[in-house]
Structure formats: C-alpha cells, structure tokens
Amino acid sequence: MITRQATTTLWRPTGPQELDLVRESGWRAWPPRLPEQPIFYPVLNEDYAIRIARDWNVKYDGAGFVTRFEVDSEFLRRYPVRQAGGRTILELWVPAEELDEFNAHIVGGIQLVHEFR
C-alpha cells in the first residue's frame, strides 16, 4: 500500500524579479531573501494572494503574479498561522534562515496561476 504524503496548498503573490528566480530554479524553490527581508510570507488563500499581486505588486513592479504550491503538512506545523488583517488575511512567517529547509519540503513544483499587469 502506498501512503500519500499530506500536503497543504500555499499561495505566493510575487513580482517579476522573484518570479524570474523561481523560474530559474526549475519551479522548485523560492530564492533567498534579501537582507531587508527577514521573513518569507506564503499565504493560505488564493483571494488574499490575488489582492496583493494585483493591488500591490502591479503598482510597485508593473506586474504581479500569483503562484500555488504544496508543502508537507507535517513540516508546516512549526509555523503558526498568522492573521495579518481580516479573518481571511492569513499567512505563514518563515524566517529567512529556514527558507532552504522550507524549499526542501515543497511537494511537486511551484505553479504560476495568475498574472496581472
């Protein structure tokens, strides 16, 4: 019998530069954070990711993208869900120094699901 690994779907709104680095990874990993970015923030619902990509990334970067990816649910238990605003504004806060380990627990690839210009 094959046991399927439980995963959690996460979403990531992103700008063009970060998306280029994800593409360069073969759609397998998030790039290291910049020094002024101590936390990696994946979000827990598509609507929130769309709002950030459309309303924030387009304004500041000229384009915004939404990605979807699966992460091992057991591994994610170390990161409590943070409510960053309204009841549907939910995200995880992954310290930058843990991003390589986080990337190692992505199941499958990172998928581009929305684009805004």
Layout of secondary structure:
Layout: E1 7-14, H1 16-24, E2 39-40, H2 46-61, E3 64-72, H3 73-76, E4 81-83, E5 90-92, E6 94-95, H4 99-104, E7 106-116
Antiparallel strand pairs: 1-3, 2-6, 3-7, 4-5
What does this protein look like?
This protein has a three-stranded antiparallel sheet. Strands 2-6 form a two-stranded antiparallel ribbon. It has helices at 16-24, 46-61, 73-76, 99-104, and strands at residues 7-14, 39-40, 64-72, 81-83, 90-92, 94-95, 106-116. The protein has a single domain (7-116), classed as ADP-ribosylation fold (Alpha-Beta Barrel), CATH 3.20.170. By secondary structure, the chain is α+β, with helices and mostly antiparallel strands.
Q: Please count the helical segments.
A: 4
Oligomer: single chain
Spatially, the strands of the biggest sheet line up as: 1-3-7
**Which CATH architecture is right?**
Alpha-Beta Barrel
Low-confidence stretches: none
Helix fraction bin: 25-40%
The assigned structural class equals alpha+beta
**What is the beta-strand fraction?**
25-35%
Protein name: Crystallin
Organism: Streptomyces pulveraceus
Brief summary:
The protein is built from four helices and seven strands; from the N terminus they run E-H-E-H-E-H-E-E-E-H-E. It is of the alpha+beta class and 117 residues long.
